[in-house]
Design a protein that fits this description.
By secondary structure, this protein is an alpha/beta fold. Helices cover 33% and strands 19% of the residues. The protein has a single domain, classed as TIM Barrel, CATH 3.20.20.70. The chain has 10 helices and 15 strands.
Length: 332
């Protein structure tokens, strides 16, 4: 892996602001890369490899072409809300390089669904890799009307998304995780899943789960969403759990190495609980995936696909190539 990592010399906020520009410059001089290992087909979507970029890296869908130069198997853009909105006030990002930990309190900053539409419209179809669109609500929308925000984004971007990710697991929008409670989930999720099919087109929908769910709530969420017809799950978002060695604020979510064990346990419990029911569903593992070994471990635990975000911060843009090289030695 790349040892020279000058972006880690910068403050987290400066590095975060510059990363899209750096990625655009990096990608402008490279062709699209295809790393073929463990290719996977699901409902007509072709994944040349099972490792993709998690939501949050490309918030507005304007970096997809540049991410394709890294050799990703798929890209998740967003979180996209109906209206543009700024990040939460105050400090929104920190980094602990020694512990390979990230903290954020962003709260779905993005330019809105219409801006994402312009960006995604510019991509050739069929897409070079599958594109998932992560959907959220504006922070001013009350929870009893939240489903309307999600449906609005889905209707706006339907023709340009290969799948949608229903994100109600971020800890950075007030009371958003209340929608994951079993008593609230059905009323929220049912009307969204009712619009999966429109104008003869069926777009798969995935539910992104919190790593902080208690076991019984986790199993209830899996059962309810399965019965309503969800097409899969992304396991997991950031955690509000803090270790004693981390000096991050109490608010916000943590990703990177501190999420490693938590996310693995959620994957193991979910796979065991779903059993044969997950046969035609998509299970994606994300959280604490920092090495090629981590990627393969999640696949061997039962994930169909794996995503990473923190690895791009701590290992750099060649993480996908390094994983490909490791997978070739391991599987072929």
């Amino acid at each position: 892996m790349l040892e020279f990592k000058p972006w880690l010399w910068l403050s987290p906020s400066v590095s975060h602001s510059l990363s899209p520009i750096i990625l655009q410059l990096f990608g402008s001089f490279r062709d699209y890369q295809t790393f073929t290992w463990k290719p996977f087909n699901w409902r007509g979507l072709e994944f040349t490899n099972p490792l993709g970029v998690a939501g949050g890296m490309d918030k507005n869908g304007h970096l997809v072409k540049h991410l394709w130069t890294l050799g990703v198997g798929f890209v998740e853009v967003g979180t996209i809300t109906p209206k543009p909105q700024r990040a939460n006030p105050g400090e929104i990002i920190r980094r602990d390089t020694k512990q390979q930990a990230l903290w954020n309190k962003m709260g779905f900053p993005n330019r809105g669904a219409k801006s994402a539409l312009r960006n995604l419209k510019g991509l050739k179809s069929p897409h070079f890799t599958p594109i998932f669109v992560n959907v959220g609500k504006n922070r001013t929308t009350p929870n009893d009307k939240a489903h309307e925000d999600y449906i609005q984004v889905i209707d706006t971007l339907r023709e340009h998304a290969d799948a949608f990710v229903i994100n109600i697991s971020s800890p950075n929008t007030a009371d958003l995780r209340e929608l994951l409670q079993p008593t609230n989930l059905k009323g929220f999720l049912a009307p969204i899943l009712n619009v999966k099919q429109k104008d003869g087109r069926t777009t798969p929908m995935l539910l992104k789960l919190s790593p902080d769910l208690e076991d019984q709530d986790l199993f209830s969420v899996l059962d309810i969403s399965y019965e309503l017809g969800i097409d899969g799950w992304i396991l997991t978002n950031t955690t509000t759990t803090r270790t004693l060695s981390l000096s991050f604020p109490k608010e916000g979510g943590v990703s990177g190495k501190p999420l490693y064990d938590i996310s693995k346990k959620i994957l193991e419990k979910s796979v065991n609980h779903l059993g044969e029911r997950r046969r035609d569903k998509l299970v994606i593992s994300v959280g604490g995936v920092l090495t090629p070994e981590d990627v393969c471990e999640r696949l061997e635990m039962g994930a169909n696909l794996v995503q990473s975000y923190s690895a791009l911060v701590f290992s750099g843009p060649f993480f996908f190539r390094d994983t490909f090289e490791y997978a070739k030695r391991k599987y072929y």
